[in-house]
Amino acid sequence: MDYQAVLEEVAAHARPFVRQGRVADYIPALERVSVDRFGMAVADIHGAVYGVGDWEVPFSVQSISKAFSLALVMAQSHGSQGDGDIWKRVGREPSGTPFNSLVQLEAENGIPRNPFINAGALVVTDRLQTLTGDASTSMLHFLREESGNPHLAFDQAVADSEAEHGDRNAALAHFMASFGNLENPVPSVIEHYFWQCSIEMSCRDLAVAGGFLARHGLRADGSRLLEAREAKRINAVMLTCGTYDAAGEFAYRVGLPAKSGVGGGIIAVIPGRCTLCVWSPGLDARGNSVAGAAALDHFTTLTGWSVF
Amino acid sequence: MDYQAVLEEVAAHARPFVRQGRVADYIPALERVSVDRFGMAVADIHGAVYGVGDWEVPFSVQSISKAFSLALVMAQSHGSQGDGDIWKRVGREPSGTPFNSLVQLEAENGIPRNPFINAGALVVTDRLQTLTGDASTSMLHFLREESGNPHLAFDQAVADSEAEHGDRNAALAHFMASFGNLENPVPSVIEHYFWQCSIEMSCRDLAVAGGFLARHGLRADGSRLLEAREAKRINAVMLTCGTYDAAGEFAYRVGLPAKSGVGGGIIAVIPGRCTLCVWSPGLDARGNSVAGAAALDHFTTLTGWSVF
Amino acid sequence: MDYQAVLEEVAAHARPFVRQGRVADYIPALERVSVDRFGMAVADIHGAVYGVGDWEVPFSVQSISKAFSLALVMAQSHGSQGDGDIWKRVGREPSGTPFNSLVQLEAENGIPRNPFINAGALVVTDRLQTLTGDASTSMLHFLREESGNPHLAFDQAVADSEAEHGDRNAALAHFMASFGNLENPVPSVIEHYFWQCSIEMSCRDLAVAGGFLARHGLRADGSRLLEAREAKRINAVMLTCGTYDAAGEFAYRVGLPAKSGVGGGIIAVIPGRCTLCVWSPGLDARGNSVAGAAALDHFTTLTGWSVF
Amino acid sequence: MDYQAVLEEVAAHARPFVRQGRVADYIPALERVSVDRFGMAVADIHGAVYGVGDWEVPFSVQSISKAFSLALVMAQSHGSQGDGDIWKRVGREPSGTPFNSLVQLEAENGIPRNPFINAGALVVTDRLQTLTGDASTSMLHFLREESGNPHLAFDQAVADSEAEHGDRNAALAHFMASFGNLENPVPSVIEHYFWQCSIEMSCRDLAVAGGFLARHGLRADGSRLLEAREAKRINAVMLTCGTYDAAGEFAYRVGLPAKSGVGGGIIAVIPGRCTLCVWSPGLDARGNSVAGAAALDHFTTLTGWSVF
Question: For an interface test with C, which of D105, D108, D167, D183 has the most C Cβ atoms less than 10 Å from its Cβ?
């Protein structure tokens, strides 16, 4: 497979979609990004990396961090209690329509439906905080090591901006706390959650750092982060829950495990082959990058690769 | 009407119901109250007061305070913007089942259904805070003046205890703040709300202090707190929304405007005649005093007074 | 009280509101009615009747029939099992927002919240069918007797039209049947329900026929239809649930027990004094007559009569 | 891969789970089946078939038929309007919790979330009825041809029994009809839907008949039923929506596209390799076969095959 040629063709195909979305505007720090950006990277399981467009430009990872915090909690847990521990506090089912998020949390006694909706990610962050003592810094260190980029950093302006507009996440956290589903104080959990979301990474950084998902759990240095079945399971959760309320549609169109963020990035996995990351800030109504989804769709069409 | 004789008979009738309910146990300060208590007072519109049982024993007013904060906001508002102001931020419709509270808040863009559910009372407290600069102390002063009891006070243990177990109210407040429906900082609104709930009053104090609702808006000293139509409207909201999710049932059985609290108190109004307050800490599944409801039911049967 | 003078003034006041609403258009038979109509009648408890405008023009009673079917079921039941029977199958609580109707029915195991939402009225009709063998004809006969108008009749075009557009009511009925909450076959219950709604009556007819609600349960001929407490309880349910999702607002503005229909009629009760009926086909967004509500509001302002 | 050896080992592993579930009892015809049954078959893409236990015993396919009706509608549609047609009337997203089914249908204007919940399957059946003139017989003929078993038949007792207890499906159908989302009369759609569910097939029949899903759309005779991307997309919908409200959990544990039925059958696909069918009538709380899920889980563990 000539990855570089495929990426060039994918980029050409995705270009017309770039301006169709809307840049996230709920915080000023994200709103400033130009809608014209487009980049894509592929990291194969042998360490080779390919890229096109703005693939080395850092952007805000936002919810893509949720895939890494889940992996870190599962990695930290399997020594002691197995991966079952976190799954008592968060489900593995898709979440249905957004307007149901709170009623489901209420109806299901403060147990979020899955780790990739905000409520679920707050629980995972809370657990990571307990396990590591610092849920955001431990993630940053992991991402630096896996990506091989020691310059990765939090974006304080983004984290502060999130906190200023963080009433909805505070509501979710207090609500779960009222059911006894948080171990740490609400303000601490929210703060680490916002720091995780604020990390800046490029398509290259993310495709490389997510390599363990394509390598059945092996880290960049060959050591084992997760059991093969654990990596497989994170991929399963990404496929069923990774793209907000469009997971079914995304599976239908693209057919790959993926996790998106409102910064416009999407990370996707072809198990046993490669990890992809695409970035374009214009979002559709459900919060997924329009050009990013079109690019992944075209990538699977050109390569014939899909999990189905 | 020989109020004293009626009260004696009502107390005898209600006595068997006293032990049927459960004392609120979500905070220790309430849990300690003996389930055996029962008291009832009637204050007629001419200033006479009658009582039976523990009618002079102070208890925690809890949600009964919501009727007074609404009255104070309406009283403070009619000079300037009319009573329409607060009604842009809170509705006047019954709230349906409890499990819907959050989904309704979500579906209706952060506008609570009525001022007597917690979310609505937080909005009213927020408004009172803006209007007076101190939503809890201004209410305390008003209650002292109207009841003629200068010893009324907050119960700090109760307020602290509420705050410790206040995650659900914090969730509601942050959620409404995310829709822009709070004027003051969340922690300040919650704090004043808890202080209001913690005020200790007896049946006598409450029946006398609520006299303006039976006197079509006139205060104890004869001055006007509310227009007649404003007092009538608070009574209407009490009838349709004043007893949690049992308002329809309460109207069916008792047929009087009323506001209950989880401390076991219920205040009720017979417009143009008198204001009643009954107290017994045992609650039914919906949070209303079992013996209190039975007493009011029997009172209306004996007197033939009802609004219908 | 000079009722005639009051009615004239109320009609003048309501006139500007007549064209503000929209005529119900979900079935052709209702759509054809002119929006310009306005009529109002008062029947006092001594048998005198007063009217203004189109007060003698028949219109489709629609949901106003729900108040009469409830009364007939209560009247038929008290000999045997007391009024408790029907209340095991339908609640007495306001229904919250319309979008919740089905989820509440689902969450509450097929028990509708109250007898005045469609689901609840289907249960009441089902019960009346069991008690009388013919739920629609028995109601028609009752209305002829009470109104003194032997010419009252069903409007077949309306009943047929309802049936043609009756999928939503069929859905509700089948759903309740799946919970075992219907005694008769779904098609039979729906048919009688539509016949009841199709009855044509004037303001005069309705005000006179509803006199028993103001006379504490006594029929036009002085015989007893309901116990006084039963009549009082129907009034309570009308106040808390009688005007669709606007019951709280209606209680706030008007302060009278009332039942409205999408034909544009509203019946209202001043217990111990009189029964009112107003008609104007233009509806607000919640299905209540705009000019009708304005007229009742002004009537209470002029007379000072309200239940609060 | 020695399929036969794998099946024997899987059967031994699944045996202890056989009695853990409960046989569906909502209709007598299903209730009669012994909980002790267990069978499993694998049909590889080259035509070989392997089986273990009760793999040749017919059982009621129930909701497994939903996968075939979707395939038939997609196959019939691509000549004219492409597969887009049906997707305007039914979504592709997982459905969230069961208790939300009706509120989602209401909130989303009568468009079911996906073709594998009952509401969605009714829409697909309605479309198949329009396309073929006989939605149940056309499916039966297709299954006979693909399975090579000319004796496949409807079970009239099951179809009649479903119809007798069919109020909930009638409610869904009428509700969608009220939004204009049915092309054929409600009774006709429901009848064909029940006939489809009543078809009796063995594990062998189903594994063979579902071969086109593993063969990227090719039928047993080598002709094309679906485009490769259409087959891939049905697999995607099976993975995200095929096992009722446990789709996320099933993807997490098993990692294969699958469709289950309350008869205890589950069909699963390993694209490019084989189609599996397992049957054991004991169900878990969400309606999936307990031993069937355990068998598929163990099959993927032994073979290392998963889509992730």
Answer: D167
